[in-house]
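User: Teach me something about this protein's shape.
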Amino acid sequence: PQDQALEALQELVNARSAANGERTALSNRMKTAVTAFLRKELTRRLAALDTHIARLDAEIERSIGAEPEMRRRLDILISIPGIGAVTAASLIAGLCELGACSGKQAAMLAGLAPLACESGERAGHRAIRGGRPAPRNAIYMAALSASRHNPDLAQFAERLKKAGKPNKVVLVAIMRKLIVLANTLITKNRIWTPNPP
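Assistant: First, the predicted structure itself:
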């Protein structure tokens, strides 16, 4: 059974994700709105949503800070270049098994492990599927950032591109590497460093 602190964090992270989705929808509607009245109403609602998201962020930070184990996980996760506080909170809430499973299991839980599509002599392409969508969506944005700002992952991405891999395959490989790295660091209870000890 999950403890109350983790359940409360999951609820807050889910609420933030929903509010962020609503903000995106309103922003998209704002781009197509022509009527002055509607634009004014949408602007007012967007401002209220921004305030709501900021308050949720503050509460998420307070909730994590109140629990020493969660705080340590957050410190470890945000030390990895590409992973920010929002992604880290999503991983803490959505993949509480990190640090207690193998890298392959962590990738499977996030839906980032390539599964074979083979039967008899037929060999299909490997694809990812299943897993938990919330952590996978959070790690997607982190992978975009890490492919540019994390030197090791940027080199890894460049190697895959030179090998002719499509951009989507490269991005999923970086997502998987980030999950496996996060799992390893939490297992060893250490901060990311540019050069491994």
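Now, about its shape. Residues 1-66 form one domain. The chain has a mean pLDDT of 88. If you'd like, I can walk through any region in more detail.
User: That's plenty for now, thanks!
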